[in-house]
Specification:
Structural class: mainly alpha
Shape: globular
Number of helices: 19
Radius of gyration: 23 Å
Largest sheet: 2 strands, antiparallel
Mean pLDDT: 87
Low-confidence stretches: 1-38
Order of helices and strands: HHHHHHHHHEHEHHHHHHHHH
Length: about 500
Amino acid sequence: MMSVSSAGSHIVKAALPDAKDEPEKIENASPSGGTQSLASPEELDPNHPLNFSKWRKLGILLTVSANGFVANYSAAAHLTAFPEIAADLDTSVASVANAIGISILGLAVGPILVWNPLSKTIGRRPTYLLSSLLFIPCVVWISRATSFNSFAAARFFAGFTSAAAQTLPPTSIADIYKKEVRGDKIAVFSMMMTIALAIAPLVGGFVVANTTWRWIYYIVLIMAGVQFVAFLLLVPETLYLQDRSTDPEKQMSPVTGHRGAAWMPWQRPGEFLGLVLRPVVMSTQIVLLLPAILASVAFMWSVGITIVAPQTFREAPYEFSPEIIGVTYVAYAIGGVIGKPSGGIVGDWIVTYFAKRNGGVRQPEYRLWALFPLLPLLLGGLLIFGICIQEQTHWSAPLIGGGIYYFGMVGVFGIVQTQMVESNLVESMNSMAVFNLFKCMLGFAAPFFIEHWCTSESFTKAYVAQGVVVSGFGLPVALGLIKFGRRLRIAQGMPA
């Protein structure tokens, strides 16, 4: 039996950056937690995920991106059905709106407590399969809930079980794609997650206008089943563990290793607990903390838009039906799709450009140059949305503002997530856990205060303040990290 002192040492060892399983040098590190050779992919082990065929990589990319879509779709599924659910479950519309935040809370804690540590130990594939399988009964529970308390509890556990989609996909993408295209591929995932927040109310609006609100979650249930089958068929293990040798001749040979589980959680319970705590430790790293807060604030304001808009458009002078309210979300989806390249391809181009000027040395902070044209779009989008709602202008005006905001937000997400992944590639999943924790905690808070803020003061004041906060905070963050990011990483013991 493990002693208390022994268990404690395992916890500390796993939580600190110099844990025994972590490579000594970042340039030799792989996002899977093993080590990656400096050799080109052609010289790597054929079993290495970087050597998967392009079609196999595409299948993985689309499946894990769809995973993010389904998780966020479920979280936003009933945005256009607040009154219908409130009447059926004998509760207030405000309580049903707050259930959006309850699901986001599940998305926040799930990766840290369960999914990230499992993925680093038993592997990516079993974690995806377990998460997507457990998600299915939770959706059934939501669809059959007969009281608000049951509905809210089911929403939390649906968020918790689907939360692997918040952090594992960027790590899987980093497992299989080279750094030159990694930003573009992660941007696909970011775009899918963002447009889900717009597609869900579009579908939900037509559902509640023609049948019971429960069919909103029956549709989610169908998606959940397809998702599980897709993981089963299309996503192999990408956790790569490099074989280590003390023989100098073998060290010079091409990389060899295997894909699969590193160890089982019950074999090292103390170390597993250390993995749980590791994102909390990493949240003190400034080059991760500040970008995560920036993206989280942007996400919080987007949640506010998706909650304020449907309730506003139900009332005079608009008086839209649920179907039309759902259609209005297409504007946000279009903005998100168009914004995808700004956070992906453009970011990759910028990093490549500055790397050439720096003798071929790439720095994660170069990517933050791409934020500068996006921050004014966040400000402008919020101003247009808030002022036009306040002045009750033509319905198209606030939708244009919301679309502009989603354009900027998708770009910010792609840039920030890739910068955080590349700042500490060997711990990319924990970096995404930091990102997700702050994003979801602020998203959880949004339904509880934004609508009241808008109605107690004015939409104009509220959205001017929101725009100033996100752009005013983003500018010094980008400038500061571009200038001092590498020094901060070195000072805090991160890879240089």
